């Protein structure tokens, strides 16, 4: 079963400095049909204007991933981490028992465009931790690059949940086949471009929830960038 989540049906909030689209219920946007999917709780597509950002605020018991598409995002937290996240880099915070952080667009001229992803952890109260890594998705074009998984694998980021998150860039007509194990589920998020998923069309920022399917056939109908979540 494949359930489409069309980009133009998402929640939307424009605060001037922040233009945000909410895949799932978030803040003042509530849709009882889209409270999350499996352990996925938030997928927000954000554009932050130059010289603006989120002031210091707190999180707890959540796995938070930031995936920058264009521009740059400056991060600071109360664990002493301070960095700038560029396209190709992925940042993770395991908020655990509690973390304070801020996110700011340091550019004076260019907006920053990003996806922020929240995943419910499989246990609460872990010690907060932070990771930031670069993944050469362009070099691995046409294939899936594992960027996050439970306990980490190789050079991927570690998350406190039974999930495998892949990223891929696909040239037009490129095809990916992915086999879902029994009782596993998937979420396909189109980041850029357009693809078909088992012959269903997904355009920029569209997504699909997948259950009770064995094989996922993803074909790029335009040059595309995707995120694929394999979920318990």
From TrEMBL:
Q: Which Gene3D superfamilies match?
A: Jelly Rolls
Q: What does the similarity note say? A: Belongs to the pirin family.
Instruction: Report the CDD domains cross-referenced here.
Output: cupin_Yhhw_C, cupin_Yhhw_N
Protein's recorded name: Pirin family protein
One Pfam assignment: Pirin
Residues covered by the Quercetin 2,3-dioxygenase C-terminal cupin domain? 146-231
List GO molecular-function terms, semicolon-separated: metal ion binding
User: What are the residue boundaries of the Pirin N-terminal domain, all occurrences included?
Assistant: 7-119
Cofactor dependence is on: Fe cation
Name the InterPro entries on file.
Pirin (IPR012093), Pirin_N_dom (IPR003829), Quercetinase_C (IPR041602), RmlC-like_jellyroll (IPR014710), RmlC_Cupin_sf (IPR011051)
Its lineage reads: Bacteria, Bacillati, Cyanobacteriota, Cyanophyceae, Oscillatoriophycideae
Cofactor binding note from Swiss-Prot or TrEMBL: Binds 1 Fe cation per subunit.
Kindly list the positions annotated as binding Fe cation. 57, 59, 101, 103
Species whose genome carries this gene: Euhalothece natronophila Z-M001
Is this entry keyworded tRNA-binding? no
Q: Does the keyword Lipid biosynthesis apply?
A: no
At the top level of its lineage, which domain of life is listed? Bacteria
User: Which keywords are on file for this protein?
Assistant: Iron, Metal-binding
